[in-house]
């Protein structure tokens, strides 16, 4: 591979990553926006924001997907924990506004 081809490959790959990153961020936004619906349901059901069983399900699903795609389980679980925490924080903020 020549330098010009390598440079083109690098630029194209980075452009694709930028598009993927944008999609990921939009999905995170959509996921977080569901907090309003989730907290309304939890209030009616008398549930706490913290739902260890649900978090366990998310972690198990994450492990399975990581293994299937040969991605580091620990790192994916960290990402999912951050997303779960983000959603819980949003739910807490919604409760404070009521």
Describe the structure.
The structure is a single chain. It contains 4 helices and no strands. The protein is mainly α and 98 residues long. Helix 1 (3-33) runs parallel beside helix 4 and helix 3 packs antiparallel against helix 4 (73-97). The longest helix has 31 residues, at 3-33.
What radius of gyration results from the CA coordinates?
A: 19 Å
Average pLDDT reading: 95
> Total strand count, please?
0
Major β-sheet annotation: none
Low-confidence stretches: none
Strand-pairing-aware structural class: mainly alpha
Characteristics of this structure?
mainly alpha, 98 residues
Task: Annotate the secondary structure layout.
Blueprint lengths: L2 H31 L1 H11 L6 H17 L4 H25 L1
Care to give the gist of this entry?
This protein has 98 residues and is an all-alpha fold. The chain has helices spanning 3-33, 35-45, 52-68, 73-97. It has 4 helices and no strands.
């Amino acid at each position: 591979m020549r330098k010009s081809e390598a440079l083109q490959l690098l630029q194209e790959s980075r452009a694709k990553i930028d598009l993927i990153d944008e999609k990921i961020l939009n999905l995170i936004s959509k996921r977080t926006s569901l907090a309003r619906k989730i907290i309304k349901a939890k209030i009616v059901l008398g549930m706490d924001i913290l739902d260890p069983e649900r978090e366990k399900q998310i972690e198990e699903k994450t492990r399975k997907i990581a293994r299937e795609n040969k991605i580091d389980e620990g790192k994916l679980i960290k990402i999912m924990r951050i997303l779960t925490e983000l959603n819980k924080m949003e739910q807490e903020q919604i409760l404070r506004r009521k």
